[in-house]
Amino acid sequence: MSLRTLFAGDLHVVNVGLESFAQPLRDSGVDVTSIDWRPPAHGDDELGLDLARLVGHPLVEASNAVAMDRILAVQPLWVDVCPAREAIPALAERRLLLHAGPPIAWAEMCGPMRAAVVGAALLEGWASTPAEAERQAASGGIEFEPCHHHDAVGPMAGIISPSMPLIVVEDPATGRRSYSNLNEGQGRCLRYGALGDDVMDRLRWMSARLGPSLRAALRSLPERVNLRSLTAQALQMGDECHSRNVASSALLVRELAGALAQHPDLGGHEALEFLRGNNYWFLNFSMAASKLATMAGHGVEHSTVVTAFARNGVEVGVRVSGCGDSWFTAPAADVEGLYFPGFGPEDANPDIGDSAIAEVHGLGGFALAAAPAIVGFIGGTPSAARRISEEMATITVTRHRDYQLPGLDFVGAPVGIDVRAVVDTGTEPTITTGISHREPGIGQIGAGITHAPLECFIKALRAFPALPVEP
C-alpha cells in the first residue's frame, strides 16, 4: 500500500505504549485506540530472562495447579471462639503480641500500630499507663511477631493479645485451623490506632461478654457455620467481603440471632445489639477463611502462586508458595480514598493490615464487579469496578468455583495471584482497604483503594528457586 493510498481515507490509529504519543493525533481529529503496553519484566533484561524461564514451564504450571486445587478444596467452617492464648500457645508462653504485616520492630512501627500495642499492653495488665507500655515495648519487655507466623490474621494494626477472643476456623477434611480477632466496628477502634476509655471499655466487654456469648451460641447451633457459603451469597448481594461487608454481616447475624437470644446470662442480648450496628462484622471471618484457604496452597515446590499479602503500615510484603516462608517487601503504598469530614490525604497512614488476604483469595479488589459501590470512594463507576475485576483476571491462575460475580455474568472471581503474570504485565493487584490516621490515638479517617507494589513481586521472582535442569 502506497502512502497516497494510506492517507486517502479516514485514519484509524492503534497507539501502543505511551499515551502521550496518541494525544497529538487526537487533537488533529484522528481516531486513536490506545493499548496500555509495557515492556515485559519492567524492561529489565536479567529479570526478563528469569521470567522467560518460568513462563509456560510445565513444572511450574503443574505446581500451580496443585496449589490452586488445595486452595479451592478448603471448606472453612467457623467452629469456635476462644481466648487467643488457648488457640495460639506462644501467647500463653511469652509476653508476646501479634501484629499485621511482615516482621517489624517497635522502633520502626507506625503511629497506629504503636497505639494498638499500647492499648493491648493496658488490656493485658502488663502496664498501668501508656508511657509504661511504651517503655516495655522499647526495652524488649514485649515481643512482637506477625500474625501470619501463627496461622492468624488481623485487620489494620492487627494486634492480637493473649486475652482477646479469637475466631477459630477449621477445614474439616484436614483439621487445619486459622484465626482472627473479633471486629470492633468502625471509627475509634484499637485496630485503627485509637486509644481512650471508649476503646478500652469495648475491648474489655468483648473479652468478658461478647466472646463467651458467641461461643455458647455457636455450640448450640445444629451445625457449624460454613463461611464459604455465606461469602458466596454475599457476593450476590453487593459485598466484596473486604471493605464492604453489609450483606455478609447480616447473613452471619441471622445464623446466630436465635442462639444468642438463648444466652442472656452470657450477654447474648448485648451481642445482638452490638452486631446490629456493626457492618464490618464479617470482615474478620472473611480474613480467617481466606487465610485458611491460602495457607493450604503454601509450600508447593515450584509454585509461583502468592499465598499471603500483608502490610504493617511501613512495609508491605508477599509470600509465594514455592519460596518457603520468606517475605518479599516494599515500602507501604498510599491509599486513594474517601475521607471523613475534617481529614485528608496528609493525615493518612500508608497502607496497613492483614486484610488483603481477602484479595489473595479472590475477594476485595478482585471481586469489585460484585460491589460497585466501593469504587464510589474514588469517584468511580460500576463499569470501572467491572474493568478492575477483569484486569485482575489477567494476573491470576484461575477463577473461583463458588465466588461468582453477578456484574460479570456470574463468572468466578479471579483467584491465585501469579508472580509471573504480575511482573510480566506490570499490573499491580488492586486492594480495597480502610484508612487510619498516621498519628497514634485517633483511629479511622476513611476508606479507599490501593495497590500491591510491583517491587514485592519483582523481588519474589528474582529469588524464585532454580528449576531442575531437564534431561
Please indicate the count of domains.
3
Head-to-tail CA distance between termini: 49 Å
* Total count of helical runs of at least 4 residues: 17
Tell me the CATH architecture of the largest domain: Alpha-Beta Complex
Beta strand %: 15-25%
Could you give a short account of the major beta sheet?
5 strands, mixed
Contiguous runs where pLDDT drops below 50 for at least 5 residues:
none
Question: What spatial order of strands do you see in the largest sheet?
Answer: 6-8-7-3-9
CATH class of the largest domain: Alpha Beta
Radius of gyration: 23 Å
| Helical content (DSSP H or I, runs of 4+) | 25-40%
Number of strands: 18
Choose one word for the global shape: globular
What structural category characterises the helix and strand content? alpha+beta
Would you kindly provide a written description of the structure presented here, covering whatever features stand out?
The protein has 471 residues and is of the alpha+beta class. The chain has three domains: 35 residues, no CATH class; 194 residues, v583 fold, CATH 3.90.1700.10; 212 residues, Enterococcus faecalis V583 fold. It has 17 helices and 18 strands. A five-stranded mixed beta sheet has the order 6-8-7-3-9. Strands 12-11-10-14 form a four-stranded antiparallel beta sheet. Strands 13-18-17 form a three-stranded antiparallel beta sheet, with no helix packed on it. Helix 9 crosses helix 11, helix 10 packs across helix 11 and helix 16 packs across helix 17. The model has no long low-confidence stretch (mean pLDDT 92).
